[in-house]
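Figure S4 source data
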Amino acid sequence: MPKIYVPRYQVLSTERRAFSDQGGGVRIRPQGSGGGCLLQAATAALGGVQPLHYWDFTTDRALFNGQDVGVLSNTPGWSFTRATVGSALTAAGVVTQFASGQLRRTNRGALIEGARTNLFLNSATGGTQLVTVAAVSHVLSFRGTGTIALTGASVAGPLVGTGVNNLVTLVFTPSAGVLTLTVTGSCTNVQLEEGAFETSWIPTTGAPVTRNLDLLNVASPRVAYPLGLFADIDRSSDSGIGSVFFEVDNNTNDERSALVVNAGDLPTVTMVDNAVVQAAISIGAALPLATPAKYAGRFATNNVQGARGGVLGTAVTTATLPVTPTFIRFGEIASTGVPCFGYIRRAAVFNSAVTDAQLQAMTA
C-alpha cells in the first residue's frame, strides 16, 4: 500500500501575513509543497549552503530535491530494516527501547549498528547466573552502582558500577565453558556479548536475544557528479576498523564516495572508482566517542577535498569519478559489512562541486 503524506501546516508570522491578509484572517501554507521553512533552516544550519537533499535525524525531518517531504520515512526510495528489537540513548543518556523494524532515532540521532547477541538473561535488572561461553573476546557492560564478579571460565574483573546512569564495561577473553556472573547491588541494562567493544543494550528475558544489523538507504537518489556530502555524527563505539557514516554508490563497493571514520579514528573523505581508491583525505585529530562532529567532502574530477570543524584537509588533484550513484547509504557500505556503530545526527547531499569556503562554512 503506498504511503500517504498528510501535510503539516504552519501559521505564517504576523509580519508576513500583513502582505496578503488585510482582512485579519489567518493564512496557512502546507509544508511539503515546497522547501519552505525547512529548506531555510537546513541552509542556515549548513553555513548558508543550500542542499539538494537533507535529513535531520534529531527532529525527524527531511528535504528531498529541495522539497520538504515531512518525516524522514517520506523520503522517496527510503528503506529501513532490522528484524529485531533494540535500544538507543537520548541526548540526556536515557535508554529508549525500539520495536522490531523501527529506526532507533532519538534526539541524539539515528543509531546504526551491526548484529550482536546479549547472552545475559533478564537483562533489565541483573541477577546472578551461569552462561556458556566460547573462547573468544567478550564484553560485559551495565549501568548502576552494583558489582558483577566473574568466576569459572574467566576470573577477569570484577566490573564495578560507578553510578545509576553510568555505563561501565569489561573486555575479556574466557576459556570455553561455563562463566558464572555473580551480581550484587544494583545492575541494570546488563549485557554480555561476543566482540571486542560494547554496543547498545539488547533487552532480554528468559533467553539470549540477537539484535540484527540496521540497514538504512535511499534508492534512486537523483544525484550525479560532481557533488558534495555532509554528515554530523556521534560515535557510540570504537570498532577498531574503518566505518562508513554516509555514502553514495552504485550498489557496489567499487564505485562510491563516502564520509568515513578510519581505523585510526580520523574523519576521512574517501572516493573509489573501478575498485581503486582515488582519494582518502583524513582531517584533524582522532575523533573521541560521544562527541558530535561535522565533516564534509567535495567529489569532482581531479578535485577532491574535505573539511572538518571548519578546517580543510589536503586536496587530491588527480582523481577519476565513480559512476553515477544509484543509492544513498547511512552508516553502511554496499556489502553491509562495515556498519558505523554510531549516531547519524544530520546528513546532506549537494548537487555541485561545493567550494572550499562552503566546506568550511557547513562544518564550522
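Figure S5 source data
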Amino acid sequence: MNTRLFVSKLLGQFALRVFAATFLLLGANYSAATDPVSLTSLDIAFYRVQSFDTKAAAKPLVINHLGIETKQAADGGYLITAALEGYPAHAAGLERGDIVLRIDGADFHPLLSLNPHAAESQFRPRSAPAELTYKRGETVLTVRVEPVFESLYDSYRSATLNSVLSFAAGNKVIGYVRLWALTRETGDLVTLGQLLQSLHDTDGIVLDLRNSYGYLASEHIDLFRASRSDFLSISLVGKPNSNAIEPEQNRLLSARQRDDSLRAYRKPIAILIDSSTRGAAELLAYQLAKLDRVTTVGEPTLGRLGRYQRGGGVENLVENPAENAGENLDKNLNESLDGGVLDYSAADRVLIDGNVFEGIGVKPKRNAPFPFEKVSRGDPQFQVAVNVLMGVI
C-alpha cells in the first residue's frame, strides 16, 4: 500500500483522545538548549510540560499556536528551531532557521501573540488568520497562517503521524519517521507499530529524535529490536533503601509482556539526535545504539532525565511514586498558572547501566553540526543520515 495513503487512513481512524501519561522517574523531559531552567505560564514550553504531565482525569490545556519551537534570536524576534509537520507554520513554508519578527504588525511572542490572556489562564480560539513577518537570511518575507487551537500533546502526536514517508535514494528505498511524541498509550503504540510496519519494505530508516517529547516504554524499543536482551538498567546512587527504585524501574521498561507477534524492524537505522533530544528520546537512542546496525547522527544530547516541578526532587518521586504521580503534580501546575514557577530538577543521582547520564547524554557515532541559527536549503544532519544508510544497505 502507498505509504502516504496508509498514513492518511490511519489519521482518519486515529482518535486523539487525551489520556495523559503517569509521571514516572524517567518520563517526559523538557529541558533543552532552547528551554529556560525555570518556566512560567508565559513560556510556551510550560504548556508542553502541562500537556504531557496532566493526569488522566484532567485535560491538557488547549492553546492557539503555530506548531513551532523557538528561542529568542540575538538581534530580535524568535528563531524557529523546529516546525511540526502538517501544522500552520510548516504548511506556510516556514522552517528551522527562520526568524519570526512580527505578527499583524506587532512584535511577535510565541505564546502571548496568539493567547493575549494567558496570564489569566484564559484561552479562546482565534477566529482570524495571522500575518507573519519573518526573516530568512537577509530576506524579509510575509505570509498568512491559520493558527490551530489544540493542546500541544495532541499536536505533537499528530505531527508524528504526519512525518512518516518513504523515498527513493538511488536504487534503494529509505523510510523516515520523526517521533515528536513518545507516549505509552496503547492506541498510540499500536498506531506507531502499524506505521513502522508500512516501512518494513524499505532498505533502511531515518529515525528522527530531535525535539522529541514523552515517555519511554519497552514497546518503543520492541519496535526496533527482536528481543528485550541487554535492556538498559536504572539505579540510584546514595540511596539508603536501594529497593525504592524497583517499582519505577519495572513500570518504565517491563509494564507489559512483549508481543511475540510483533515484527520488529531489523534493517539499518540512522538516528538523528542533537541538543533538543531529551529524556525518553535520549534513552531510546542510547538503547538502540547498542546495535551494530544502528548509527546515531548529529550532535551530542544534553543528558536531561529530570523534570520541572515546584520543589522537592527526584528522590521524592522515587519514595512516593503514587503520591507524586497524581494530585501533587496537577496542583503544582495549577499553582504555576496562577503565577508560580516550575524549576528544572536534575536527575543527577540516576545511573543508566551504572553510569551517570544527567549532563552527559548520548554522543553520536557520526558528528554532523547543524546550528539552529544556520540558514540552509536542506537539512545537513538528515543528508548525513541518508549517506550513512546508503553506505551500509
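The radius of gyration is 20 Å. The chain has a mean pLDDT of 82.
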